Amino acid sequence: MLSVLVLLTSFLSIFYLTAPSIRKFIAGGVCTTNVQIPGKVVVITGANTGIGKETARELARRGARVYIACRDVLKGESAASEIRADTKNSQVLVRKLDLSDTKSIRAFAEGFLAEEKKLHILINNAGVMMCPYSKTTDGFETHFGVNHLGHFLLTYLLLGRLKESAPARVVNLSSVAHLIGKIRFHDLQSQKRYCRAFAYGHSKLANVLFTRELAKRLQGTGVTAYVVHPGVVSSEIARHSYLLCLLWRLFSPFFKSTWQGAQTSLHCALAEGLEPLSGKYFSDCKRMWVSPRARNKKTAERLWNVSCELLGIQWE
Questions:
Q1: Tens of pLDDT, residues 285-315
Q2: What is the pLDDT of residue 118?
C-alpha cells in the first residue's frame, strides 16, 4: 500500500512539474495581425467572463467600441470597468442579453439598433455546457436553445446592420465536441433521450452548420462568417457539472488560459484576407478539418429552415 502511495505521489509530482511545458505545447496559435479598429463597433455575447472577456479586452485595446452582451449585468459592468481601466478605452458598454429568452434577445437587438448605426463585428461567444436537462423560457432544450437558436435569432436581428456596415464579420464559437454531435431532427429538444455531453455536442455541430449556411447565403453582401474551436480552456463553462468542475480543477494546469483561448476568435475577427474562407472552421488561428456531418449541405439547409420555424421568423 505504501509503495502504491509513493508511486502515485511521484506520478502526480511529475505530472504537475511538467505542466508548464505541456501547456506551452498546447497553447496553440496567436493572432498576429497588428490591425487597429478605431471607430469599429463590436458586439460580443457572454463577454463578462472567460474567453469573451479577453476577446473584448483586446478589441477595446485596438480602439473598437465594444458591447458586452450578457445575462449578468453586474458582472458585465465589473468586467467592463476592468477593461476600460486596462485599455484606456472608455467605449466599453454593457447591455442585458439572456440567450435563453427570445424576448430578451429581441429587446437587446431593438435597443442596440436604436443606439448604433453601425455594426462591424458580431462574436457569438456565449454558451452553456453539460447542463442538467432543462428548457429555455420558450421551451427549447437549453443547449440547443442557448448555443444555437439564441445566436441564430440574434444574428438574424442584427444582420441588416452588419450588411449596412460591410465589410463586416460574424464569428461563431463552436467546439471540437461537434465531432460527437448529430442533428436529430426527430428529437431536437432531447425529450426522448438526453445525455449532457451529447446535447452539448449536438449544439456545437449546429453552430458549425449554421456558419456554413450563413456564409453561403451572405455571398456578395460584404459580410463573412467564421466558426471557431477555442481549444480546451480554463474557464467557467464547466460550472453546470460537478464532475466536470473537479476534472477542470485537476487538469487546469494543462488547459489554455482564457487569453490563449481568445486568439482564434480574434484571428477570425481581425485577420486580413480571410474573406475567401468564409464559412470555414478554425482552431489555433488556422483552418481545420470538420466532421463529415458538419459538411452535410442538406442537413445545414434543413437545420436553417427548422430553426426559422421554431423561432417564427422568415430568413431567406
A1: 999 999 999 999 999 999 999 999 999 999 9
A2: 98
Read off the pTM. 0.88
Cβ atoms 237, 129 nearer than 8 A = yes
Q: Which residues fall within 8 angstroms of residue 163, CB to CB, at 6 or more apart?
A: 221, 222, 223
- Average pLDDT, integer, range 225-245: 69
Kindly give, in sequence order, each residue whose CB lies less than 8 Å from that of residue 47, ignoring residues fewer than 6 positions away: 53, 55, 56, 66, 68, 69, 70, 76, 79, 123, 125
Exposed, middle or buried, 273 (CB in 10 Å: 0-12/13-18/19+)?
Answer: exposed
Residues belonging to the active site? 200
With cell 444582420, the residue in question is 159
- Name the CA dihedral angle for 292, 141, 257, 249, rounded to a multiple of 10 degrees: -110
Of 297, 285, 272, 146, which Cα lies nearest the Cα of 217?
Answer: 297
Contact 207, 99 (CB under 8 A): no
DSSP secondary structure string for all residues of 88-151: ----EEEEE--TT-HHHHHHHHHHHHHH-S---EEEE-----SPPS-B-TTS-BHIIIIIIIIH
DSSP type of residue 286: E
d(CA 316, CA 308) in angstroms, rounded, equals 10
| Grid cell for residue 313 | 421568423
Measured CA to CA, the distance from residue 230 to residue 127 in angstroms comes to: 13
Place 4 in a pLDDT band, splitting at 50, 70 and 90.
Answer: very low
Chain-centre distance of CA 297, in angstroms?
22
Query: Letter for the amino acid at 266?
Result: L
